[in-house]
Amino acid sequence: MNTLAGTGRLLRLGLRRDRVVIPVWVAVLIGFLMTTLSSYRKLYSTQAERDEYAAGLDGNAAARAFFGPVRDASTGGLTAWRLGMLGLALAGVMAVLLVIRHTRAEEEEGRLELVGSGAVGRRAPLTAALLVASAAAAVVGALAALVLAGEGAGGALAFGLTWTAGGLLFAAVAAVAAQVTENARAARGIAMTVLGVSFLLRAAGDASSGARWLTWASPLGWLGEVRPYAGDRYWILLLPLGVAAALGAAAYALVERRDLGAGLVAPRNGPAAAPPRLRSPLALAWRLQRGGLAGWAAGFLVYGLVIGGVADGVGDLVGDNADVGEVLTKLGGQSGIVDAYLATVNGLMGAIAALYGVQAALRLRSEETGGRAEPLLATAVGRLRWAGGHLLVALAGTVVLLLVYGTAAGLAYGAAAGGTGGKVADAVGAALAQTPAAWVVSAAALALFGLLPRATQAAWALAGAFVLIGPLGPMLDLDQAVMDLSPFTHVPKLPGGELTATPLAVLAAVAGALVAAGLYGLRRRDITP
């Protein structure tokens, strides 16, 4: 049989299964890009203002570490700087999740064995998965280039190609990771570790003038060296694309040499009996989700350190630009530029923490469709205890992420400002104020799982909409009635604003009602594999 037989059918199936997930990823990435471009156009309308802003950024090591060096002070150049690395990281995450979902996850669940028993070639599933991820990366890159085309076609094309190349590269990384282990979670962990190490190497190289070689040791560093709007060095794209091709070839070779369902690394046998700490639904939920929470917490820690390190210099970056100060105050609060800046970022981090809550809550659906929930529920474990364990991990994990971010931001801000004082306590309190709004999003995901299980993927679309409407709504000039739909709109703007308990209590009550609705629906419906 042709080893690629059935690829077309599997590709159509994959695109159909991801008809919600891929548009959400595209909408979030392009939404951030459009918002950032619009902000720079409004806030820095003259070249002198852009030059002053870029000069302040280039002297900030924390900004260089997270976003890279500013190489061009045009509107397009600043937009490419602001979203270059962030977009590459997100495009990489998207590609990793898509490839693992259609390869190792399908194999682990046993569905790939059923598909392979038909007229399907050995390489067809991996090829279809890579094509799905490549199509998503190509769409993101093309739309990004289209958004920036008004700032210069050459720079826009270079920027879009970096996003696409990043997606292709980490799709290939995920393809290899899917062959290494028998577990989808472990495969995601391997690929995400590669992505994280690449980001850290690039950050260390860009932040240090004496260790620039670290930038060239990172695939993300290569893509940053394409320099959209500052030379447009297209030839550098050959490096990540060449590595992607080599990794893809390695993945195909490994597919041919391993058994279906097996990985290169054999799993270790577990103990014959579980210790007491694992003999409850909550303990099982924690065991299943602790790795994901650790990865999210590491990201929040790094971002908190960067935000706190930059905060003390925000006033210098704003300079005499009254428009920037007005927008920051509008977004974040009324008590100084730094407080307004921190409040703005807090809202965004609360929305991102809600994405973790959605992921953790929807683990219930993957356990159900994977056939692992039914044997568990056939024992003395009830549905509410089972769901409650995962829900508690989702809600408590959201608190942990915001606590990690707030602590890191407060410590870094205090160190940059010459003394922590009460900055850590203020930063932690302001971050934790986002908790009830993030809980509303997680509770909405649980409500969909209980009442409309086939529509659970819509929780991602809802979370993405809240990210755009709440923290970024004022920059998009959205109508207040639209902004009020997001729970993050109703959170007090801290630090700097007045802490009022009423909106937080109302949001907590809404989250409680959604949880109750979801659990009620779960008790009354069938468990469907």
UniProtKB/TrEMBL annotation:
Keyword Transmembrane: yes
Full protein name: ABC transporter permease
Keyword terms of this UniProt record: Membrane, Transmembrane, Transmembrane helix
Residue stretches spanning the membrane: 20-40, 80-100, 128-150, 156-178, 190-214, 234-255, 293-311, 340-362, 391-415, 427-451, 458-476, 501-522
Protein source organism: Actinomadura fibrosa
